[in-house]
Amino acid sequence: MIESTMHTQWLDTETSSGLGKQLKIERETHKLEKRLCRQVGQAIIDYNMIEEGDRVMVCMSGGKDSYGMLDILMKLKSRAPIDFTLVAVNLDQKQPGFPDHILPDYLGKLGIEFHIETQDTYSIVKKNIPEGKTMCSLCSRLRRGILYRVARELNCNKLALGHHRDDMLQTFFLNMFFGGKLKGMPPKLTSDNGEFIVIRPLAYVVEKDLIRWAEHRKFPIIPCTLCGSQENLQRKQIGNMLREWDKKYPGRLETLMTSLQNVVPSHLMDARLHDFKNLRTTGEPDALGDIAFDEESFPAPGTLPGVQVVSL
Ligand code: SF4
C-alpha cells in the first residue's frame, strides 16, 4: 500500500512537472509568436513597407527564414487595416536532389496564391563556372533576372525577402571589413532595375527566434547545400564574430542595430553626405556640434532607448 502511494506520488510529481513544462513551452511559444508579429508589424510601419492594394511577391527558398516570413505575413494580413495580396513564389533551379514537391504541397495547403518557376540555372552555372570557383555571383544574377520577370508576369509591385536582423548586421560588417564601405542591407529599397520595391519584413527579427519558430511550426525545410557551392567564408567569419559578441556581451547586437537607425553624417568622414568644405560657425549652440576636448560618454549596456535585450 505504502509502496503504491509512493508510486502514485512519483507519478503525480512527474505528471505535474511534465504538465508544468508543457505549459511553460506553450507560454514561451505564445510570447515568441507575439514578438515575431510585433517586430514584423513594427518594421512594416516604420518603413511603410506594405500599402493598400500591394501585390507582394514573397520569395520562398524553402529555408526557415522564408517559411517564417510567409507565416507571419499571413497572420498580419488577416488582421491588417489595409488590403493587400501575398503571392508566394519559389524558383526551382534544378539543383540535383531538390525535392520539388515540398513547396507546392505546403503552399497548396495554405490556400494562398503561389507560383513555382522552374528554370535550370544550375546547368548554366555549372557549364560556365570552372570547377572549384564560386558559383554564387552568376547564379544569383540569373535568379534575380528570372524573379523580376516572374514578378512582372504576376503583376507584383513588391518583392519580400526573408533576410533577418543578423543577415543585416553581417552585411554591414562585410561591407565595412571587406568592401571599405559603411553600407548595410536596407529594409526597403527600389530594385536595381528600378521596377520594384524590395522589402525585408524580418529586419527586426533575430535569427534565433526564426529557428525556434521553424521548429515549433515544423516547416518542411529544404536544405540549402544542394548546389554544392562553397560556403562564403567571409560571411561565416563575420557570423561567428557576431555570435561570439552576442554570447559575451548581451545587448551588443541590439545596440548595433539601433546604431544603423541613428546615423550622424557630420561625425563621419563622407564629404558627399556632409559639406565639410563650406562649414561656417553659426554662433548658436548645437547639440550635435563637436565637444572638442571632452570624451564621449555612453549609457550602460542595454539601456539605450529602443534597445531591447531579448534573453532566450
Ligand atoms: S549558394 Fe548555390 S543556390 Fe545559392 S547563390 Fe550560391 S550557387 Fe546559387
**Strand portion, in percent?**
5-15%
Report low-confidence residues grouped into runs of 5 or more: 5-10
Main sheet: strand order = 3-2-1-4-6-5
| Order of H and E elements | HEHEHEHHEHEEHHH
End-to-end separation in angstroms reads 44 Å
Number of strands: 6
Binned, the helix content reads 40-55%
The kinds of small molecule bound in this structure are: iron/sulfur cluster
* Class by SSE composition: alpha/beta
Global Rg: 24 Å
Q: What is the number of helices? A: 9
Shape category: globular
- Give the averaged pLDDT, no decimals: 90
Largest sheet: 6 strands, mixed
Explain the overall architecture.
This protein is of the alpha/beta class. Helices cover 47% and strands 9% of the residues. It has helices at residues 2-46, 64-79, 102-110, 121-128, 136-153, 165-179, 207-217, 233-248, 252-260, and strands at residues 55-59, 85-92, 113-118, 158-160, 188-190, 197-199. The chain has a six-stranded mixed beta sheet with strand order 3-2-1-4-6-5, with helices on both faces. Strand 1 (55-59), helix 2 (64-79) and strand 2 (85-92) form a beta-alpha-beta unit. Helix 1 crosses helix 2, helix 2 (64-79) packs across helix 7 (207-217) and helix 6 crosses helix 8 (233-248). The longest helix is centred in the first third of the chain and has 45 residues, at 2-46. The radius of gyration is 24 Å and the shape is globular. The structure holds iron/sulfur cluster. Residues 135-136, 139-140, 227, 229 line the site of iron/sulfur cluster.
